Amino acid sequence: MNAGVRLHGVRKTYGDGTVALDDVSLSVPPGRFVSLIGPSGCGKSTLLRLVAGLEAQDHGQVSVHGVSPEDACAAKLIGLVPQTPALLPWLDVLRNVTLPRRMNRRAAARRAEIAGVEARAVLQEPDMLSLLARAGLAEAVHRLPSQLSGGMQQRVAIVRAFGLRPDVLLMDEPFSALDEFTREALQEQLLDLWDELQTTVLFVTHSIQEAVRLSDTVVVMAPDPGRVVDVIDIDLPRPRGQQLLEQGRFHAYEDRVRNALRGAWRVPGAA
Ligand SMILES: Nc1ncnc2c1ncn2[C@@H]1O[C@H](COP(=O)(O)OP(=O)(O)OP(=O)(O)O)[C@@H](O)[C@H]1O
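^ inputs. structure came back:
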């Protein structure tokens, strides 16, 4: 079976000699929600950029549904939600989320071939108004981005990404600039959409609670050089509402991730 996303023995060195990733292997089955967590500089964003085809590795292989990231991007299999929403300021919310949807038939055919689905299904337009309403944006569809709060803008960016129905969605700390209350509400909406659309998600975060709440698997990374130090499967029932967050088994997973992160801070070779 083709893994949704697969990295094997990946090394990435930047021009100044920084080894951002060293011998990273990771296999993310289709439909799984996987978080990357680790200290600043451990290569989380670099890993996403490699999967998105925005950077190239020096060694090893990266594949998305069995093809190169460039092929997967050209066939529109991949969606990306950056840290800041990057909406077009002159378009209202509805136009912002519908504009990128226009997909040509050739890309649709290639995508269908790679992902093993019918081209017709790929070309089907999702109901963007309904997706916006599900994200709590029904009243805002005709507003401009400048008339929205930061949390609302980020919701629009998430709806836009899901509206493309990507097979793989890459999210780089999408909630880091938001207050805790908005963040929790958005986590819930993200899980709802993910549950419905069955997208494979790679999600970068600095929050242990967020990683445990959202993920099927948490990948813990360490810096100098950037590498994977632990892969923790989160075997908790879904939906993961507020109640679960207060339970011992949830805290036990938080502790496991925290301990793995403590190890990640240690300098290799130090006593
Ligand atoms: N374009 C670049 N040129 C040179 N070095 C870079 C470049 N981009 C990233 N790096 C370096 O590569 C390493 C990994 O960076 P990356 O941004 O992937 O880490 P990160 O885990 O996402 O960090 P953060 O949590 O702070 O966002 C860091 O040492 C960083 O300084």
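The chain has one domain: 5-265. The two ends are 42 Å apart (CA to CA).
thumbs up if we can close this ticket
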